[in-house]
Structure formats: structure tokens, C-alpha cells
Amino acid sequence: MTAYEVAVRAEATLGEGPTWDPATGRLVWLDILGMRLHTYDPVSGRRTVRTTHQHIGAAKPRAGGGLVLNLRDGVGLLDADGGFRWLHHEPVPGRRANDAAVAPDGSLWAGTMRYDEAPGGGTLSRLTGDGAVATVLPDATVSNGTGWSPDGRLMYYVDTPTRRVDVFDFDADGIRGRRPLVEIEEGAGFPDGLTVDADGCVWVALWDGGAVRRYTPDGELDRIVTLPAPRTTACAFGGAALTDLYVTTARTGLPSPDPLSGSLLVIPDAGRGLPQPAFKG
Q1: d(CA 182, CA 172)
Q2: Which candidate, 105, 195, 203, 212, places its Cα nearest to that of 146?
Q3: Which residues have C-beta within 8 Å of that of residue 66, sequence separation ≥ 6?
Q4: pLDDT at residue 2 in the model
Q5: Where does 11-153 show beta strands of DSSP type E?
Q6: Which of 85, 90, 194 is nearest to 133 (CA)?
Q7: 3-state DSSP call for residue 140?
Q8: Are 34 and 248 in contact (CB under 8 A)?
Q9: Average pLDDT value over all residues in the chain
Q10: Interval 158-185 mean pLDDT
Q11: Residue closest to 99 by CA, chosen among 108, 117, 112, 86
């Protein structure tokens, strides 16, 4: 595995949500607080930036084209031609969207948190393409990384202040049997976004840890990749073969940000990613 490279040098306030879009061959990523939706084509180097009308926590490909957006006031659909409409509109004062992921069945699992990070002020909800919504975890604090095992029978989840990556049993009826997979030790940072590779290992970005860690399905620490930005926020495999690990970073709250804080980084040939399902909506 080679060292990191800079995919996009940027100064995102809160870079987040890297997601590979196989239909377009581009990586989608965000600046939550900057209200910007970025795309990056690793072949041509072409980049686009779209300003959103409010804070955006996640953007995921839709089965029919376009993106589903986890926004401050709910979940919306962005069409390929730029048109927008709300799928689920639920403004809550003092609360915003955070990370989200698409489950094997094509539903969106969307997280929220309060701006003041009040304990229990966030949620994790499941949304289907017709706009039906069910709150699955009503008392999260900073709902963050979510992902599924290769066979779809396990769901991994991070509520950042717990310092844990938790695992649930997952099936058509939902989640159950919450238990810790791993707890991040004091001084190593806080777990943020995550992704699962083809071997079933969980990669976790560490906020204030300046690193991405890989854990085996048994919770054993398998690999640490140290990065030059202390606030690494999320990671995802991309590229045509899904072998390159993209990592977003943030500048917010740093009195003297490192030069690469806020940039999109990439670890070439980090492993083998899993194709991600598109949102059925």
C-alpha cells in the first residue's frame, strides 16, 4: 500500500461524505458547513462545485440518476438536470443532518445531530423511495458512519461521543442486538465516518486522530494509515476498481489548520471496496 496523495487541495470547513458514483465515474464529497457539493473525476481531474441552500450532511447516488441529499431540514432529491424536491421535510430548530448511507435494500439511513451536540439530540432514520420514514435510533448524539457487511447481515454504526463502532444484526425487519465492535482508546481521536471493504473489514476515520484505521470483523486492529490532517472525517473506496480509499478532512475548530486540512486525500491501492447500492427513489 502506497502513501497518501492529495486528490483535491481544498479548504473545506467540514469536508465529509466521500461516495463513489459508478454511473458517472466520479467521487461525490461535501463541505457540510460550507454548503457545497463537490464532484471529482480521478481520470480527467475535472471538478465541479454546487452550492446548496442549507447545510448538507450526505449525498448518495439514486438508482434513476441524480442524488439523494441529507439536508438540515430533511431529505431531498436532486435530479440529474439540477431539479430539486423534498422527499421528507422535517425542520427541527437547532438540528442538522449528518452522515447517511444506503442499505442493501436501497433504503437511506440518515443521521442527524444538534448543532450544540446535546446528548440524545440526534437520530438515525430509515427512508424509502416513496418518502416513508421510520426513526430507528431516537436518541443518538452525533449520528455518524454507517455501513453493512458484505453479506448484508450486519450493520456497523458510529455515534461519535461513545468512542465506539457498534454492530447490529440486520435483516428486512430492521436492526437488533446492538453491541460494541471496537472502542477507540483515549488520545487516539473519535470515530467518525466509516466504510466496509470486500473482506468485511471496517475502515474508520478518526476525528482529532489524523488517521484511518482498519478493523477486522472480529474487532482486531489490522492497519493504521496516518494522514497529515488531524480532523479526518470519513472514508470511501473509489475508482473504477474500487481500490483507492478517499478520505475527507476538516478545518473547523482548528486554531492553526495544517495546509492539507480541508482537502480530499486518497490512499491508492488501499484494498478492495464493495459496490455501494443506489437509493431506490
Answers
A1: 25
A2: 195
A3: 77, 78, 79, 80
A4: 55
A5: 15-21, 26-31, 36-40, 47-51, 56-61, 67-71, 74-78, 84-89, 95-102, 108-114, 122-127, 133-140, 143-148
A6: 90
A7: strand
A8: no
A9: 97
A10: 97
A11: 112
Q: Tell me the pLDDT tens digit for each residue of 228-253.
A: 999 999 999 999 999 999 999 999 99
Reported as half-sphere exposure (CB side, CA atoms, 13 A), residue 156 has a value of: 28
Go through 231-242 and write b for each residue having 16 or more CB atoms within 10 A of its CB, e for each that does not. Answer: bbbbbbbbbeeb
Contacts of 93 (CB under 8 A, 6+ apart): none
Nearest to 232 by CA among 202, 259, 264, 200: 264
What amino acid is encoded at 196 in this protein? V
Q: Report yes or no: 41 and 60 within 8 Å, Cβ to Cβ.
A: no
Using left for φ > 0, alpha for ψ between -120 and 50, and beta otherwise, residue 60 falls in: beta
**For the residues 216-236, what does the mean pLDDT come to?**
97
Please confirm, yes or no, whether 192 is among the known catalytic residues: yes
Question: Which triple of cell numbers denotes residue 93?
Answer: 430548530
Give the ranges where 182-264 is alpha helix by DSSP (H).
Answer: none
| DSSP code, position 250 | B
User: Choosing from 192, 222, 244, 269, which is the catalytic residue?
Assistant: 192
Give 167's strand partners.
156, 179
